[in-house]
Structure formats: structure tokens, C-alpha cells
Amino acid sequence: MNYARxxxxxxxxxxxxxxxxxxxxxxxxxxxxxxxxxxxxxTVEQSLGSIDVLVNNAGIMKLQKVEEVDDETFNQIIDVxxxxxxxTLRLAALRLNDYGRIVNFSTSAIxxxxxxxxxxxxxxxAVEALSYTFAKELRxxxxxxxxxxxxxxxxxxxxxxxxEEQISQLAKMSPLERLGSPEEIANVVSFLVGRNGxxxxxxxxxxxxxxx
Length: 212
Known about the structure:
Blueprint: E1 2-3, H1 7-19, E2 27-28, H2 34-48, E3 51-56, H3 71-95, E4 96-105, H4 109-112, H5 118-137, E5 144-148, H6 156-159, H7 164-173, H8 182-193, E6 204-205
Parallel strand pairs: 1-2, 3-4, 4-5, 5-6
């Protein structure tokens, strides 16, 4: 369980996994830093064994029109969303077990193209492009590489900085007229990394309730 800052929440997740009889640990690492990612991979391998599954869901979403975005904000978004994914994929190419599974997080906001989302969308569109090609580079190893593109989902990343009115409007855009839940997105991840998802490769699954 990788985390950047909130060790309390990370340890809560680890505790739940351990209560179910499984082994788990929390590792602090900034995925935009390749050295920290290397250390994270090594710690996992030393503590839990070789790696079968990688899920890249670290993300920064700061919403501003292009003309308002400064260099620092642009770099933060690209460093975490795109470079962070690249850093883990580069190591996964060498260290993930054959027949492994990789799931990268994109966003359905790309298709919505709402004002203010341009830089965030650009970072996630690049993740999709990276995933398509990376899946083909792993030919012969039986490793699948897919993206999940959630729509509006009730997470801190989505809710932060939005008014109740904005949240309500976005929720009603889906024909199901509600936000998605983290559990529903987790179910899609579980499908892709499990036996039933082994024939899905180099795809983007939009888990968004039909918003696009």
C-alpha cells in the first residue's frame, strides 16, 4: 500500500487487509521520484515476495483554465499523474512476474472535456497512450496492461475544491444520476487483475455510469 503523506489512512487499509488474514504493509514513496519508486519495489519484494499486480492510482487534480496554470502546478500534475506512472511501469517491465497484471488510472473527464480540466486530462490521456504501447512491448510475457477511466466518484480527489452545487450537477450528468463509489471502481480493478479479466488487454474501461 503506497502512500505519499497520510500514513494514518494507509495503515488503516493495511489493518483491514491483515484482519482478513492477508499480509500487507504501507510504504511511503513519492511516485514522481524514481529513486523512491525503486526503493518501494525492493521493499515489497523483500517483505512480500515477487510482484504479480501493479495498480497506478496516485493522482493530482487541480482544476484551472489553461491560461491560469502556472509552471509549478503544471509540473506537479505531470510529475505525479504521468511521470509517476512511467516510473512504476519502467520497473514493472523488469520485475513484474510473467502472467502479471497492470492497471493504470485514467479518467472519463477526457471525453467530457470540461473547462478547467485541460492539464489533468492531458496527463491522463498520456497515461492511456503509454499503456497501449507498453502492453505491446510486453509481448510474450502474458502480462496485461489496462486503464480504468472513472467518472465522477465520491473520493477526496474528486470532492476537493468543489461546491455542493458543482458536485450535484456532475452527479446528475450520468443517466444513473449519482456519483460512483470507490467500491464500484475497486470491483473493476478486481475484475481486471483476476482470472476473469485475463483476455482484456490494452483497453480503457470507462467506469462512469454512462456519463459518456
